[in-house]
Every structure is written in structure tokens, then in C-alpha cells.
Amino acid sequence: MIPLSSVKVSSSLLLLAAVSLGSAARADEVLEVKIGAAHFPPYTVRPEQGADTGLLPQLVDALNRLQSRHRFVLVPTSIPRRFGDFQQGRTDMAIFENPQWGWQEIAHNTVDMGLEDAEIFVSRQQAGRDQHYFEDLEGKRLALFNGYHYAFADFNPDPAWLKKRYRATLTYSHDSNLNMVERGRADIALVTRSYLSDFLKRNPDSSSQLLASQRVDQVYHHYALLRPGASISPEAFASLLRQLRENGELLRIFRPYQITVEAPHD
């Protein structure tokens, strides 16, 4: 007969071994981080259609190549829907964001990405038109992207108000807005400096047709917003961005689009 004390010791050892194996499995587990991908070219381009173009897919690829603890994946969303997806846990992270853009009442942690872009005004070039044209928007027909928050409009994205106050045409295409300016159907379009850079690369003939403002509507200092309880901490994500900054990956991805890569603000 096996002594009872031996059975107890064996059971304890088995339990300890099971706990140890479970801990090892958890330590090796790859943690998924779901990033909301809303159409915001050139950062994210038509993710709902399965497109893998844009700067965000490049950043995700760089993050996944850098380490193996977390696996970053894109989850298609939209500009207005991204808030609900974030709150309901369908996404863990909203990226290339600003905490002022409607996030004030939503619980989140903030990570400064150390990336800056700017929203600028674009009109059609014509005789006698210079930078003074952009100083006053009164009476000018604006071409805007539906759902965006513009500084000149006090960040109010309401389409009805923008149409009434600024004679705005709202679309879901920056290309369409710039084309309307070229054809004289709108006086001014607002796009990011990065988007205009990409547009002129794709449409070199437009360089002589469009006039970009020195006036900046707003500076985009980009942040990543993490959902409380996400599988990656703000500190860990900030560390990954720092490594990509130091190894030159952020410069490789963003500098071609005139997006400034700098140290995060204190």
C-alpha cells in the first residue's frame, strides 16, 4: 500500500507541474492587439474593402517584425463608428488620433507617437491669386471630407451646419475635393500636407494647377489611444515606437509623405 503522505506529495508535485506549465504557456502566448482602421488617406486607405495600402499597414508590419510578444492586426471601422467600436472592445487601439476629436468622454490611455502632419488649404492657381486668398473664407465654396473635425470650424463636424455656414460640399474622397477645385466647382479644399504630397505624385500635371496655402488649419500631432484593459500597456507600446524611431523605420515609412518624425512631447 502506498503511504498517504506519498500520495499527497505526488499530488502536490503534479499540481505544481500543471501550474508551471500553465504559466509557461501564458508567457509564450501571443497577445493580439486590434487596431481600428478608418479611411484616413494616406494613413489608411479603404480598409473596409480589404486594401492593404497606406501608412498604417506599413507601421503594423514594422511592429510585428520588431517583436513576437504582440500581434498587431487591423480591424476595419469608420470615422464615426470608431468611437463605439473602441468602447465595446471590438478594437483595442485608435491610431493617428487626437484626444480633442470627440474622445473626451471615452476612457482611454494616450501614447504620443512623435509624428506631426498639418491640414492645409488648397485652391486653383490663377492670375493674381496668392497667399492672401486663404486669409478669409467668407463667401468661398469649401470642399470638405465628411466627418472630419476642422479647426476653422471649431472642430464641429456637423454636415448641415458646415453646408449652411461655409457653403461646404462634403464628400468621402480627397481626390474628388481636389478635382472639384481644379475644375472650378469649389474654391478651396482642405487636405493634409501628406495627402497633397501623395496626390501630386500620382497626378504630376496638377502641380501647375493647384496652389497650397502656407496657412495651416491645424497641426496633427498624432497619438495612439489605447482602451483600458487592452493586451498591451501604454508604456509597452511607447517602447515599441521608440525602437522604431531609433532603428529608422518610422523615418522610412513617414518621411516620404512630409510627415515629421520627432521625439514625443513631454
CATH superfamily of the largest domain: Periplasmic binding protein-like II
Average per-residue pLDDT, rounded, comes to 88
Ranges where pLDDT stays below 50 over 5 or more residues in a row are 16-25
Write the CATH architecture name of the largest domain.
3-Layer(aba) Sandwich
Question: What would your notes on this structure say?
Answer:
The protein has helices spanning 4-28, 55-66, 82-87, 159-166, 174-182, 193-202, 234-246, 249-254, and strands at residues 31-37, 70-76, 93-97, 109-124, 142-145, 169-171, 188-192, 210-226, 260-261. Strands 1, 2, 3, 4, 5, 6, 7, 8 and 9 form a 9-stranded mixed beta sheet that branches. The chain has 2 domains: 28-116 and 220-261, Periplasmic binding protein-like II (D-Maltodextrin-Binding Protein, domain 2), CATH 3.40.190; 118-219, Periplasmic binding protein-like II (D-Maltodextrin-Binding Protein, domain 2, 3-Layer(aba) Sandwich), CATH 3.40.190. It contains 8 helices and 9 strands. The longest helix has 25 residues, at 4-28. Mean pLDDT is 88; it is low at 16-25. With 266 residues, it is of the alpha/beta class.
Compose a concise summary of this entry.
With 266 residues, the protein is an alpha/beta fold. It has helices at 4-28, 55-66, 82-87, 159-166, 174-182, 193-202, 234-246, 249-254; strands spanning 31-37, 70-76, 93-97, 109-124, 142-145, 169-171, 188-192, 210-226, 260-261.
